[in-house]
Write a structure and sequence with these properties.
Chain lengths: 195, 263
């Protein structure tokens, strides 16, 4: 039996999924609060439409129910690694732009960045249960920040946070799918086979 | 004098009660035209036009299947109504999550708890229209009141509300209970379920005491009604949605596996 199919691995997977679901839930609440703060502090319209931004992982997915567990984890991990870099950029830009004038926004950004990093690590642990482990991050960094005006950077930040909020919802759903026991089994299916 | 008229702006509503499968839109005219009308609906998601499959009955409804989930792109639904005298239209724009509203919980049952005059046990089922409660769990909200009072007490998924029995011997005779449901993460609360009535267990046949008589004559007044003590929020870990169970204790209302026990 493959290591990922052993009962102890299945139990570990389910435990990690449960904790991951709680992390995702907390993260979503904080991102929604951060969105409100960001819109207000940046003087934006909350209903403004933001076109898809290069380098921002899009949560939207087709045939979501047909994805395997491994696909879900890999897509989630790629997304949160990207968000980690994007939020770090936003934090840097916010400090340059507003400095100490808006420490609250900076703290909120930093807090969400921490949660995103923790969630990415959590996903790596889940992928460790797979025989091949998580992909390396070499060359996986975000594209260099494009040269944008201040207003364009603000809109880009709005797009980042909106997609992150959607990802937090999607991640909880993905982890619940992964944690589901397969029919006729009391343990969760291996990630390669689980839809 | 002709009563026939061109259509006024139609009333359009869209809702997902079976997330993540899809959503439906339904419509009607605010006033009759007295001549045949035809309805045309278009659904746009980003740059993609989606098919809204009309129901055979009722005729003023159609269904859309979600092709994508977790999208931040809004849906735009436009309904146009046309008759021999003119046309009118209306448009709704919304997020995928904004229209998610489950149907009310089903099979709500409230029963007395033997040998416990201060408790009732309430159970319910997920709405049958909700396709995958395991991946998309619901959370619940319960409200109850004595039959003869107007003020509801509310109990959220993991909250407890306790109250002392008002009026002396052990609370009111009969209660009305209703339950509502919501996706754990998105959307809005369902309508309240069908109301159920229940009477707590009593040791002997009920007879009115002087104290109870005084209480009943003043039942419309809240001055003799003790508000519930401060609710206690359960550990999130203890909360599970749908027919599953959340157990949180105080001296009062307990939300338990398939049950709510309250004093």
């Amino acid at each position: 039996m493959a290591a990922s199919d052993s009962p102890s691995a299945a139990l570990r997977r389910r435990d990690l999924c449960s904790r991951g679901i709680r992390l995702a839930g907390k993260m979503r609440l904080d991102v929604v609060d951060l969105l409100d703060t960001y819109v207000e502090r940046q003087g934006l319209d909350a209903s403004a439409s933001v076109a898809a931004v290069e380098g921002v992982p899009v949560a939207a997915v087709e045939r979501w129910d047909e994805q395997t567990g491994t696909q879900r984890l890999l897509e989630n991990l790629a997304a949160y690694r990207a968000f980690r870099a994007l939020l770090a950029q936003m934090l840097e830009e916010q400090r340059e732009q507003l400095g100490e004038a808006d420490a609250a926004l900076g703290r909120a950004l930093a807090a969400v960045l921490l949660q995103v990093s923790a969630f990415a690590y959590h996903l790596e642990e889940l992928l460790q249960l797979e025989s091949r482990g998580p992909p390396s991050e070499e060359g996986a960094g975000p594209p260099p920040p494009p040269h944008l005006s201040l207003f364009e950077r603000k809109l880009r930040g709005l797009g980042v946070l909106r997609e992150l909020a959607q990802w937090a919802v999607r991640s909880a759903r993905d982890l619940r799918q992964i944690a589901k026991p397969s029919p006729g089994s009391s343990s969760a299916p291996s990630l390669a086979e689980s839809p | 004098l002709s009563l026939t008229a061109p259509p006024k702006e139609p009333v359009l509503m869209c809702r997902s009660n079976n997330y993540p499968k899809g959503f439906y839109c339904s419509w009607h005219l605010p006033t009759p035209t007295y001549i045949p009308n035809s309805f045309n609906i278009s659904v746009i998601h980003g740059t993609r036009e989606m098919v809204c499959e009309k129901d055979a009955f009722p005729k003023n409804r159609c269904h859309i299947r979600y092709l994508q989930l977790f999208s931040t792109v809004k849906y735009k639904v436009t309904l146009t109504v046309t008759n021999a005298l003119g046309k009118n239209s209306t448009t709704l724009t919304f997020d995928e999550v904004a229209i998610v509203k489950p149907d009310p919980p089903e099979s709500v049952v409230a029963k007395p708890v033997p040998n416990n005059p201060r408790r009732l046990e309430v159970s319910w089922q997920n709405p049958s229209s909700w396709p995958d409660p395991e991946s998309f769990p619901l959370k619940f909200f319960l409200r109850y009141r004595p039959l003869i009072l107007d003020q509801w007490q509310h109990v959220s998924n993991a909250e407890l509300a306790g109250r002392e029995g008002a009026g002396g011997a052990g609370g009111w005779e009969q209660y009305i209970i209703q339950v509502a449901a919501k996706d754990n993460d998105i959307g809005t609360w369902s309508d309240w379920s069908v109301a159920v009535h229940a009477t707590p267990w009593t040791e002997e046949p009920k007879h009115l005491t002087t104290e109870a008589q005084v209480t009943e004559t003043t039942s419309a007044s809240t001055s003799s009604f003790m508000p519930p003590p401060t609710t206690k929020i359960c550990d999130k870990g203890a909360v599970v949605g749908s027919g599953a169970v959340a157990v949180c204790w105080t001296a009062g209302l307990v939300l338990a596996a398939y049950g709510v026990l309250f004093i």
